[in-house]
Amino acid sequence: MVTKAVFKCSSERLGQLPKDNLHDIAFIGRSNVGKSSLINMLTQQKGLAKVSSQPGKTRLINHFLINNSWYLVDLPGYGYARTSKTMRSGFAKIITDYTYRCERLFFLFVLVDVRLEPQRIDLEFIESLGEHGVPFGIIFTKCDKLSASQVERNMTAYRQRLSEQWEELPPMFASSSEKRSGRDEILAFVDKILKSSDATADEI
Ligand code: GTP
Ligand code: MG
C-alpha cells in the first residue's frame, strides 16, 4: 500500500542521490512509454511526476519517498533521438551509471508499450541487465489502447521472444495508467520483494 508519497530530490549525477540506505524501486523504458504516468497512478497523485505527450520530458533521476520507507524512482527515457548524441548512440550515461552501478537500486521495472512488437532497443537493454545482474521485471503499459485478448496475445509474443535468450522469464505485469489497472499487482509485488529483503536483513 502507498499511504504517503513525497517528492524527495532530482539528481543529474549519482553523487546527488539520497544518502540514506533505503531501497530504490525504479522505472525505466523508452521515452514516452508512460513511466511518469505509472508513478502517478501507483501513488494516486496526479501531478507528482511530470507527464508530457512530448518524449524526453523526464531528464533527471527523480526520487519519491514512499511511506517513509522506500523510493519510487522516475528515470529519463531512452531511445529518444533528439535529446542528445549520447542518447542516439544508445543509453544516456546517467541511465547506465544508475542502472548498472548504483547500489541503491533494489529492483528495476522496464516499461514496454504493449502495442508494439518487441523493440530492439528494449531487448538490448534487457539483455544488458542480465549481463550486469540487475534484478528486473517488465510492465506493459497503455493496455487500455488494446482489447484484453490483444494484450494477452502481445504479452505471450513477448514472453516467447525473451525465451529465446532467457531460461527463466522475469515477472511481467499488464498496466494502464488511464484505467488505473495493474496497480494492485505491481504494489503487491513490490511489497513482497521489500519484505523478503527485510527478512534477509533480520537473519544476518
Ligand atoms: P519521458 O519522461 O519523456 O521519458 O516519458 P514517460 O515514459 O515518463 O511518459 P509519460 O508518463 O510522460 O507519458 C507519455 C504520454 O503517454 C502522455 O501523453 C501520457 O498521457 C500517455 N500515457 C501514459 N500512460 C498511458 C496509459 O496507460 N494509457 C494511455 N492511453 N496513455 C498513456
Ligand atoms: Mg517521464
Brief write-up:
The protein is 35% helix and 21% strand. It is built from six helices and seven strands.
Give a written overview of the molecule.
This protein has 204 residues and is of the alpha/beta class. The chain has helices at residues 35-43, 85-88, 93-101, 120-132, 148-163, 183-203, and strands spanning 5-11, 23-29, 61-66, 70-74, 105-113, 136-141, 172-174. The chain has a seven-stranded mixed β-sheet, sandwiched between helices. α5 links the parallel β6 and β7. 34% of the residues are buried. The model has no long low-confidence stretch (mean pLDDT 91). The structure holds guanosine-5'-triphosphate and magnesium ion. Residues 35-36, 57-58, 74 line the site of magnesium ion.
Count of runs of 4 or more consecutive helical residues: 6
Bound molecules: guanosine-5'-triphosphate, magnesium ion
User: What is the distance, rounded to the nearest whole angstrom, between the alpha carbons of the first and last residues?
Assistant: 27 Å
Strand order across the biggest sheet? 1-3-4-2-5-6-7
Percentage of β-strand residues = 15-25%
Residue-averaged pLDDT: 91
Helix content: 25-40%
Largest sheet: 7 strands, mixed
What is the radius of gyration computed over CA atoms, rounded to a whole number of angstroms?
16 Å
* Basic shape: globular
Number of strands: 7
Structural class determined from secondary elements: alpha/beta
pLDDT < 50 stretches:
none
Order of helices and strands: EEHEEHHEHEHEH
Question: What tags apply to this protein structure?
Answer:
binds magnesium ion; 204 residues; 7-stranded mixed beta sheet; alpha/beta; binds guanosine-5'-triphosphate; 21% strand; globular
